Amino acid sequence: MRRVTPLEGEEAHHRALESLYATAPINGLFESELEIVAPGVSRIRFTLDERHFHAAGAAHGTGYFKMLDDAAFYAANSLVTDRFLLTTAFNLLFTRPLGAGPVVAEGRWISGKRRVYVADARLVDASGEEVARGTGTFMRSRIPLATLPGYRAA
């Protein structure tokens, strides 16, 4: 019989962040799944459809922001085990329109290890083309991660 051991440390924190993402009410509007790949690195797979489009038939900028902000945020929060981070600023660069289908947001921590963190993210469409990029700053909040109902190890 194989013995199952509970997750500990960094791995437990990463799985708990994935759970937190999955339970956030906003994610009911976006078919998506978060993976913390490594400390400071996240990947979110999204599926876009016509509900996310503007009047000209492509993904609205709010969707780009959501995907980029989430990927950068979780890359940064993967390094913080006690507090929820808050986005304080985010800059976007749109390079191509997105239609319906799969898209991947890849987030990466850049700097900061105390109070303010900087992370960037990029969106890649189904053909492998980068369609947008963003950089954000994130600040430690007073909200303990352990008090958030969705934050739990799998």
UniProtKB/TrEMBL annotation:
InterPro entries (UniProt xref): HotDog_dom_sf, PAAI_dom, Thioestr_dom
MF GO annotations: acyl-CoA hydrolase activity
Coiled-coil spans in chain: none
Top-rank taxon, per record: Bacteria
Domain (Thioesterase): residue spans on this chain: 57-131
Classification via Pfam families: 4HBT
Keywords (A to Z) from UniProt: Hydrolase
Protein name: Thioesterase
Phylogenetic classification of the source organism: Bacteria, Pseudomonadati, Pseudomonadota, Alphaproteobacteria, Sphingomonadales
